[in-house]
């Protein structure tokens, strides 16, 4: 049987256009070791690991006449050098120059005729650092058979890439006739398959409502969110093709101190910090905020399978991500009260018994945040942009250093995609004592994303200094 894309994966391809590329990204920054960390060494490292990720050497092939969803086929012309590219900043490269490069890279769609991922080895950063910028399409990372490539190449100890013989031999691409025959056979066995495929292509309201219901997990919740759209404002505008990116560095210890002083969870503190920053950003734009003004955030959260007793890799990274819509109290001037409001709003998730604590997520093999951010992006991409204003994903990482080959990773910034009519997406990752915010904004609507990034730092300082 053909390896056919799921209805959800196919929908990510159907709705993609020049203004909303459907890929997730990451920016990992490394210290260059004495032994060196070159583009060639990265090629060797990724080449060694590709055997564990067959999807990264496969491309999407359309079925003639859209009789069925596309299929995954081996790329007979696979070229690792095409996917792992080399770039450089004018030395000494600054963070601002790196983030400008990230914005340009993320605004470009992946080539649909090739495997849907790219990695950029960026040299020239100040302090003898290098960066790895990755892009992976949402249809690729399902958390079950395929994880994000950033998770696969990082190890707990330095590893010396070993020479390897690439014994991979691509399977022959199915003919046009075979694709049609397979599609007809599946339609005979499952007549609803053709209707489902047509809906996915059309991306009509019925199909969207079904995806919302499936993602939120409750029909009543889905109907409520469809009837009650998100508040209007500058975060919901027609998305352009350009992007702006900014990163923020904070310390995990500071967030833990706020939690200890005012209660809640570290995730509550992260969301409260973002809420405070959004409040100041809206005020800087002249928005008229009242005590009841809110911004609705889509906050995907990792969950356990209800039948799985322990925190295990299959239970945590198996497409088990639920969507939570949280109304952020940007109209509330008191930072502590904002945190309390968010804590109450998130309590339902904790009370469900399915929430995954940070220590549970850390049992997932490798560096899980890239995969978990990708799953969060899948949730957002499957929902209507009319029901939320901003996407916020937060994934804890290990508090010990990780390595790509011999190079120590020192920072990691997620780059979350924008869905249609969305102007801002924020990813957060904790790693080795730091908490890193990645802000991806529409170039026209949020051209001042660096200003918002600075307000995140100010919002945290406000919470740290707050007293009852």
From TrEMBL:
<dbReference type="Pfam" id="PF06974">
    <property type="entry name" value="WS_DGAT_C"/>
</dbReference>
<keyword id="KW-0012">Acyltransferase</keyword>
<dbReference type="GO" id="GO:0005886">
    <property type="term" value="C:plasma membrane"/>
</dbReference>
<dbReference type="GO" id="GO:0071731">
    <property type="term" value="P:response to nitric oxide"/>
</dbReference>
<feature type="domain" description="O-acyltransferase WSD1 C-terminal">
    <location>
        <begin position="318"/>
        <end position="464"/>
    </location>
</feature>
<keyword id="KW-0444">Lipid biosynthesis</keyword>
<dbReference type="InterPro" id="IPR045034">
    <property type="entry name" value="O-acyltransferase_WSD1-like"/>
</dbReference>
<comment type="pathway">
    <text>Glycerolipid metabolism; triacylglycerol biosynthesis.</text>
</comment>
<dbReference type="InterPro" id="IPR014292">
    <property type="entry name" value="Acyl_transf_WS/DGAT"/>
</dbReference>
<comment type="similarity">
    <text>Belongs to the long-chain O-acyltransferase family.</text>
</comment>
<dbReference type="GO" id="GO:0019432">
    <property type="term" value="P:triglyceride biosynthetic process"/>
</dbReference>
<dbReference type="GO" id="GO:0004144">
    <property type="term" value="F:diacylglycerol O-acyltransferase activity"/>
</dbReference>
<keyword id="KW-0319">Glycerol metabolism</keyword>
<dbReference type="InterPro" id="IPR004255">
    <property type="entry name" value="O-acyltransferase_WSD1_N"/>
</dbReference>
<keyword id="KW-0808">Transferase</keyword>
<comment type="pathway">
    <text>Lipid metabolism.</text>
</comment>
<dbReference type="GO" id="GO:0001666">
    <property type="term" value="P:response to hypoxia"/>
</dbReference>
<dbReference type="Pfam" id="PF03007">
    <property type="entry name" value="WS_DGAT_cat"/>
</dbReference>
<dbReference type="InterPro" id="IPR009721">
    <property type="entry name" value="O-acyltransferase_WSD1_C"/>
</dbReference>
<feature type="domain" description="O-acyltransferase WSD1-like N-terminal">
    <location>
        <begin position="5"/>
        <end position="270"/>
    </location>
</feature>
<protein>
    <recommendedName>
        <fullName>Diacylglycerol O-acyltransferase</fullName>
        <ecNumber>2.3.1.20</ecNumber>
    </recommendedName>
</protein>
<dbReference type="GO" id="GO:0051701">
    <property type="term" value="P:biological process involved in interaction with host"/>
</dbReference>
<dbReference type="GO" id="GO:0006071">
    <property type="term" value="P:glycerol metabolic process"/>
</dbReference>
<keyword id="KW-0443">Lipid metabolism</keyword>
